[in-house]
Amino acid sequence: MNPETPAASAGAPSGDADADALLAAFVGAHWESHYRRSFAVLRAGRAPLRGSWNWTAALVPFWLASRRLWAYQLLVPVVWAGLTAALMSAGLGWAAPVALGFLAAAAMKGYWADRWLIEDAQRVVRAVAPEGVADPGALVRIGKRGGVSLWRALFFPLLCVVVFPLLAPPKSFRDTTKKAYIAAMKCELWTLAVAESSYFHDRRTYSADLAGPPPAAGDSGLRAPRCTPPYPGSSAMWVAIGVATDSGWNATATHPALPGTRCAIFGGAGPAVAPATVAGEPRCTP
Edge-to-edge strands of the sheet including 248-254? Predict the structure, then answer.
């Protein structure tokens, strides 16, 4: 009899029961109530992106860190920041993009957390206990590499508190961006004032139809020219004419990236609209 044969057969996991025992040692809490069933579904599925659902992972911000899934924990804020920036650049303000970014990040964690955990568990089992449960110390060693750790869950937010402020744009950059948006709104109001003046010269009245987006192809309607070259974000702003008579006109400009900020201008006898106080001179709220 080959002396290596019994050892080899004894050293390999005997089946699903041995595999579950090793995975249970790594997972620790909630194996019976959740992970046994979830892991069975994931191991049976062949789709590489198939996930399960884990409410705890979706709702607890640093659940991935508590499971030592550091790379995925770092991926979550990157996805949130990227999606939020993309939505903000589309002119949706800041509140809605931030909320949608959080929801998307939570959904990503909730759907793929169990898949990420089982892949990590299988990797640790192969590295730490290649002989399976036949190794008397295998379950202990695997348990030390897995489980849930409170200090790991606390370490990541503390790291974020220290590192993220260093990565945030400086105040000077934010101020420069705000000034660029305000300059774009003032530019639009100036070009509108030029268009209103030309319109009044030809028709002896002011027009309420010069604001708004550029005309579509084939549209012969009058519009105020856009700023040339366009300022950053000028395509996302909206200019609205409030009053236009034969004696005066006024208009306001807003931008979704600056909620609460408004620029205004008036011409002729007005009436004036805050914060504009001098005819023909655009003014903006702080």
Answer: 238-244, 248-254, 262-268, 283-284
